[in-house]
């Protein structure tokens, strides 16, 4: 297309379509850029290629049946989504969880965060042509995945949290496995920092690329590591503490530049903080129940169903009719790996959710994508995209 | 300022009513006419600046038990980024006959996509929105799937992408360029459609 620029100069721009299935877009994303040579002059995005109607589907089942669907939001840290959803519903009930559940949830939350950040940084490197860091990052990730296997029976879509508790208690040897995974996480962090901190090619590709100011990022509703990379110390684990996060000794990681490099470095530093939290949480792990005792919220154990009438009735009603969440409207956001994952929940007091609206952290970040890439080179757009860690499952729902 | 104090201000200035369904936080129901002013007040006017729009959710009350009043509602969640986090929600009731809400995309950058999503899923029109297209569903999609009367099992035949070129031209103009000659691809070609597809 022929255009006149601000100085009245005639330019011949080429519209270039990228996606929806491009090797570097990690899922189905599409954008169209007006190119002046290698430079992106303007860009527009289209999303929705992975839209599965999450919000319509959950209205058809019971409250407990939503949990497996939440796995498929951010599938790099599935347990975190389970916990975020269960926390929202538990808050509507106003129940207090047993101590052991809180600590276990903190541990699996932070291990998921480590996993998610490793995937993001590894994939970002891969997109820029570096295959070695991918191997470094995926070693500890594999160990955590093996813990998930033992703990939940699944590697990717775990469905571990339950409303009012957990699917089950941890297994024997869980603490040792977690400690071993933390050790290899720290080793991998060292290797990764050695790979990227002074790597000329990597720095050239990421420093000053895809910059966004704190003000603009807030206006776009950015949360999580991407917002913190722009220098805003906003973290729901500190701002609206839950599961006693405020009692652990850790720092909110903040960047300065708000560029692609900061977004990746913030993630690496957050892994360090997560390791700190998990080590402290392991010391707090004392034996005790993991489920609350209330058949109206948490289904009674199998053992009880075989032993007494009430247990059988509780199990039957809870499975067939669903638990009855108090009538009302509620919004609850939790700090997930990518930012604030929120659920706006409307309940009519029946066993089925009336309406659940997900607030995915990726959506707001991808909405700003055109501002990040305009004026840069086409190749930079891939660095920007992987630095944002867009997960299509969560973006499109 | 606490959320309660904010609500008192909203009540006084914009005649906001407390939503009784929200037993856990503060939700103010404002009329569509005052929505833009109320949001502006939350963003810039109050002592506690609600600098982040967290979410916009549409709600269809068609099958809600014992519901009286307009069928739809649009619910806005705001929060302050500075700790401690203060949250407040605004709600606008939308009748089936009007289906119109003023846009707030000039105040918050992310409102643009959120409003497109609500339009897509519920068919609520945001007046003054710069680019009100479907966001998650396909350009050819007929109907609004999150309405309670849309059957979940319904299937539709969808075949083409969004035409992003007109949008791209619009974006260029926003950036100060003037498009002299359009690309040929802007005008959809009949050969691009599969048999049976809807030409939107």
Query: End-to-end distance of chain B, in Å?
Result: 49 Å
Strand arrangement within the widest β-sheet of chain B reads 1-2-5-4-3
Indicate the low-confidence ranges of chain B by residue numbers. Answer: none
Write down the secondary-structure element order of chain A.
EEEEEHHHHHEEHHHHHHHHEEEHHHH
- CATH architecture classification of the largest domain in chain B: 2-Layer Sandwich
CATH topology of chain A: Cytochrome-c3 Hydrogenase, chain B
Largest interface: A-B, 73 and 62 residues
- Helix percentage range of chain B: 10-25%
How many whole angstroms does the radius of gyration of chain A measure?
Answer: 22 Å
Rg of chain B, alpha carbons = 20 Å
The CATH superfamily of chain A turns out to be Cytochrome-c3 Hydrogenase, chain B
- CATH class of chain A equals Mainly Alpha
Keywords, separated by commas or semicolons:
heterodimer, A: 397 residues, alpha+beta, three-stranded antiparallel β-sheet, 17 helices, 13% strand, B: 200 residues, alpha/beta, two-stranded parallel ribbon, 8 strands, globular
Describe this structure in words.
The complex is a heterodimer of chains A (397) and B (200). The longest helix of chain A is centred in the first third of the chain and has 29 residues. In chain A, strand 9 and strand 10 form a beta hairpin. Chain A is built from 17 helices and ten strands. Helices cover 49% and strands 13% of the residues of chain A. By secondary structure, chain A is of the alpha+beta class. Chain A has one domain: Cytochrome-c3 Hydrogenase, chain B (Orthogonal Bundle), CATH 1.10.645. Chain A starts with a strand and ends with a helix. In chain A, the strands form four sheets. In chain A, strands 3-4-5 form a three-stranded antiparallel sheet. In chain A, strands 8-9-10 form a three-stranded antiparallel sheet. With 200 residues, chain B is of the alpha/beta class. Chain B folds into two domains: 152 residues, NADH:ubiquinone oxidoreductase Nqo5 subunit (Beta Polymerase, domain 2); 44 residues, no CATH class. In chain B, strand 6, helix 3 and strand 7 form a beta-alpha-beta unit. In chain B, helix 1 packs across helix 2. The longest helix of chain B is centred in the N-terminal third of the chain and has 14 residues. Chain B starts with a helix and ends in a 19-residue tail after the last strand. The model of chain B has no long low-confidence stretch (mean pLDDT 84). At the A-B interface, strand 1, strand 4, strand 5, helix 1 and helix 8 of A face strand 3, strand 4, helix 3, helix 4 and strand 8 of B.
